[in-house]
């Protein structure tokens, strides 16, 4: 599958604003500094599609992007930004919980983890949360270009052991080097095809 025509549709902060039409949705979730916006820009082949910031934790809304009139790619608020206030953290948690519990055509969640580090407790909680809800997910490792091939392979093995997942389930990506876009597109296509069968 090729991801060609990206279009920003809207931002939402509460269930009444969420998109509920017939198109399937694929969500992106991860820590606030994991590189969600950069990944979206890589997939769209447009550095300005999703706003990036030098300050982590800026995304507090659910942002919808339409791809080829086939699927919504949904950028969810990042979690785990240490400098955020308790009130903001509670707001992020509420928005995430509202989205997952009120989106009935969600077909896949891309869980982003920084390839340079072991998954945080919040990463593990997110994966367990998706398992409990029965939502399919794909582990995406970001910033792979920051590591040598041997170090990346070692980190993939360590991450695999940490969250008890087969390392073949991972997609290693680099927004700077445009690595991993095809594999993500294939994962999205597979999720849509499951929905259509």
Report on the architecture of this protein.
The chain has 197 residues and is of the alpha/beta class. The protein has one domain: 3-Layer(aba) Sandwich (Rossmann fold). Helix content is 36%, strand content 21%. It has helices spanning 36-44, 86-102, 121-133, 149-163, 181-196; strands at 6-12, 25-30, 62-67, 71-75, 106-114, 137-142, 170-172. A 7-stranded mixed beta sheet has the order 1-3-4-2-5-6-7, with helices on both faces. A hairpin with a 3-residue loop joins strand 3 and strand 4 (71-75). The longest helix has 17 residues, at 86-102. It is globular, with a radius of gyration of 16 Å. The two termini are 17 Å apart.
C-alpha geometry: globular
What is the total tally of β strands? 7
- Helix % is 25-40%
**Between the first and last Cα atoms, what is the distance in angstroms?**
17 Å
Order of helices and strands: EEHEEHEHEHEH
Poorly predicted sequence stretches spanning 5 or more consecutive residues = none
Beta-strand fraction estimate: 15-25%
What is the gyration radius calculated from CA atoms? 16 Å
Task: Put the structure in a nutshell.
This protein has 197 residues and is of the alpha/beta class. It is built from five helices and seven strands. The chain has one domain (6-196): P-loop containing nucleotide triphosphate hydrolases (Rossmann fold).
Topology (SSEs and partners):
Layout: E1 6-12, E2 25-30, H1 36-44, E3 62-67, E4 71-75, H2 86-102, E5 106-114, H3 121-133, E6 137-142, H4 149-163, E7 170-172, H5 181-196
Parallel strand pairs: 2-4, 2-5, 5-6, 6-7
Antiparallel strand pairs: 1-3, 3-4
